[in-house]
Amino acid sequence: FKNRPASAFQYETMVLYIDQLVVVDKYQKKGVGKLLVEAVYQIAGENAVKEIQLDFWTGNEHAKKFFLKNGFQFLNHKLGKRLQ
């Protein structure tokens, strides 16, 4: 859970953040990921959390397709640059 305090840009809110969600290859395409997401929805509901957030690596089209199919929407884009 992440408590996001109020600022000039947002109201205070509590967010359930999915840090990692992985399904081993041999269990993919069998509904396991959907069950995990449904468990997250239940945890959010039990804790009166109204928003779930996550991120995934650029180029991970499998994750992108899965999360969009399960009702997630893009909120923003995050950029980075490695310096040597």
Summarize the structure.
The chain has 84 residues and is an alpha+beta fold.
Q: Number of helix segments?
A: 2
**Straight-line N-to-C gap:** 34 Å
Instruction: Name the helix and strand elements from N-terminus to C-terminus, one letter apiece.
Output: EEHEH
Q: What's the overall average pLDDT, rounded? A: 94
Percent in helix? 25-40%
Instruction: Please report which band the strand proportion falls in: under 5%, 5-15%, 15-25%, 25-35%, 35-45% or over 45%.
Output: 15-25%
Structural class: alpha+beta
Kindly provide the radius of gyration, computed on alpha-carbon positions and rounded to a whole number of angstroms. 15 Å
Largest sheet: 3 strands, mixed
Give the beta-strand count. 3
Shape: flat
Within the largest sheet, what's the order of strands?
Answer: 1-2-3
List low-pLDDT spans. Answer: none
Question: Please, could you describe this protein's structure?
Answer:
This protein is of the alpha+beta class. Helix content is 29%, strand content 15%. The protein has helices at 32-46, 61-69, and strands spanning 2-4, 13-18, 51-54. A 3-stranded mixed β-sheet has the order 1-2-3, covered by helices on one side. Helix 1 (32-46) links the parallel strand 2 and strand 3 (51-54). The longest helix has 15 residues, at 32-46. The radius of gyration is 15 Å and the shape is flat.
